Amino acid sequence: MRKSEFSNQVASLRPTLKTFTRKFTTDREESQDLVQDTILKALTYCTKFRENTNLKGWLFTIMRNTYINNYRKTQRAQTSHDTTKELYHLNVEDHHTFNRPESSLEFKEVWQNVHNIKDELLIPFKMYTSGYKYNEISDHLKIPIGTVKNRIFHARKEIQKKLVGYN
Question: Which fold has domain 3-78?
């Protein structure tokens, strides 16, 4: 297939590609960018297209992979990195689910239930959710790593029991 013929076939599938973007995004501009990136990659790598292959399927695969790669790139950009020597902080950006946790009654009730579990379970659980690793908790509390994992597991179970109404 000649390059001009290939280009015409790809261009004719533009509306189909636009419709397919709805699977990934509802944002109009992001959708247009995705279609353009897909067409650009298809035209750039037209030599990799094999005759008697489903062109639409090939383009959909390019689009899906482009979307996934862009998504991963965005996620990496949102990740903050811990620069402390001990690596105590969790390496994920903090996104709150409450607008104002300190004024939210539900938030207070949940944390009140969390704080009502035994200290021997609560301390390792809070350390773990704050970003400490199992071995760091084990060293800090001077207990075996298996005990740390066990206490965190039981803390979760106890918290789940207390939060039955919040599911």
Answer: Rna Polymerase Sigma Factor; Chain: A (1.10.1740)
